[in-house]
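Lecture notes, unit on protein representations.

Consider one protein chain, 241 amino acids long.
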Amino acid sequence: MIAWWVTTYTFGSLPMPALRPGWFPQLGATLTNGLSLAAAWLAAALVHRAGWWGTAPLRRIAGWSGGHLAALGWLAPVLAVQLSYIWIGRQGIPGIAGSAGTLIGVAAMMLAVGISEETAARGFALGALGPRWPWSGMIVTAVVFGLWHLGNGLFFGKSVDETWWQVLSATTFGVCFAGARLLVGSVWPLALLHGLGDWTQVLSPGAAPVWYQSAVMIFEVLWGVTLTALAVRRGRHREQG
C-alpha cells in the first residue's frame, strides 16, 4: 500500500500536459494508476519471494484468482449504493452529465483506479493479513486506505475540510470493501464496483448531499462488519492467502 501511495502521488503530481490530450484528457490519471499497480505488484513480489507470506500463489493473495460466485449476492446492496449517485445529486438534480467521449474516458480512468486501488489495498494487503487476522486486517487496511487520501490535500490542493471528509469516507468505504473481499475472495467484483461508484459520483451533476453521504458511510461500516463476520463464520478468510 505504501508503494502504491508513493507512486501515485509522486507521478500523479508531476505537470505533464502531454498526458492530457484532447481526445483523452484522463490519459495521465489512467497511466498513473497503471504504474501504481505495477509498483504494488513489484513490492508484493519482493515480499512474497522473501517468504513472508508463505507459499500461496501471489495471484491468489492479490485476489486475482479464485473467488466464490455464490457470495456475489451479498454485494447487491453495495451495487445499489454505487448506482444511487445517478439519482442523488446536489439540489436534487439526477442523471449523468458529459459528452460520449467524457463518459468513455472517465470510465476507462475509473476502471484503472478500481483495479489499481483494490489490488493494492484489498488484494495484497488484506490478502496477507486476512487469513490470520481478518478483523485486524479489515481495520488496518481500511484506515490506511483512508489515510491514502491525505495526498489529495498535500499534492492536489484540496482544502482541509474536503480532505478530511475524503479520508473519513474512504475509511468507511475500506471497511465495506474489506468485508466484501474476505467473503467473496476476489478483487475483480470490487474493482468493478469501485470504478462504477467513482464514475457515477464524478459525472453526476453535483455532489451528493452531506446527509446522504453520512448515511452511506454508516451503511458501509455496518455492511463491512456484517460481511467480515460472515467470512469468519464460513472460514472464507482463511482462503485469501
